[in-house]
Amino acid sequence: MTFVSAGYRAVRRTSELVSISECVAEVDDDWFRDLGLARQTGLHVLEVGFAPEEAAPIVREIVADGWDRETSVVVNRIEEGTRPSGELLGFELVGYDGGLWHTWHCLGGLVDDVRAATGVVPGRCGLIEGAAAARRAARWLTESGLGDPKVFDWAAAALFVP
Predict the structure, then answer these.
(1) Does residue 99 register a pLDDT over 90?
(2) Domain extents for the chain?
(3) In what side-by-side order are the strands of the sheet with 100-103?
(4) Who contacts 12 (Cβ-Cβ below 8 Å, separation ≥6)?
(5) Are the CB atoms for 2 and 51 separated by under 8 Å?
């Protein structure tokens, strides 16, 4: 499976979950283009990757919010097409909402809804282990509309430790 890098996210775990979402983890306000700068925060650094077809709706939503290639690290990195590197931890179902990143763990009951509909469950650190299962869950969640009004397009974010 091929992924494109959306950049680096500096996070401090506030629970047993590993997440890029402000809803369940303490995150630096910025996305980082440069790994060195992300590491200077002193927080745990994750590189975030998306399948290209799942990245496209995210880019559209960020651009619709008034960001572009020059002002958004995520848009810039995705459009560059750089592949993420490092150790793959697993996949988190995420969606963009007006500058915030939501996870399936923060919007009440979505983990249970996904489990009931697809059989996909979070594993270690709250992450989905396989790419195919994560993408199937993200597609179902998008089609279900259960993230409305916050998230319309869900993606399986591949989380890497660089």
Answers:
(1) no
(2) 4-161
(3) 25-32, 4-13, 44-50, 155-161, 87-97, 100-103
(4) 25, 26, 27, 43, 44
(5) yes
Q: Report residue 107 as tokens.
A: 């919007």
Rg (CA), the chain: 14
**Does residue 29 have a pLDDT over 80?**
no
What is the pTM assigned to this prediction? 0.95
The per-residue pLDDT for 132 is 97
Residues 78-87: tens digit of each pLDDT: 999 999 999 9
Both tokens assigned to 108: 């009440």
Find, among 109, 114, 100, the residue nearest to 143 by Cα: 114
Phi-psi region of 143 (alpha: psi -120 to 50; beta: other; left: phi over 0): alpha
Chain position carrying tokens 């989380």: 159
Is-contact 75 133, C-beta < 8 A? no
C-alpha separations of 87 from 54, 67, 96, 143, 161 in Å: 21, 30, 24, 30, 5
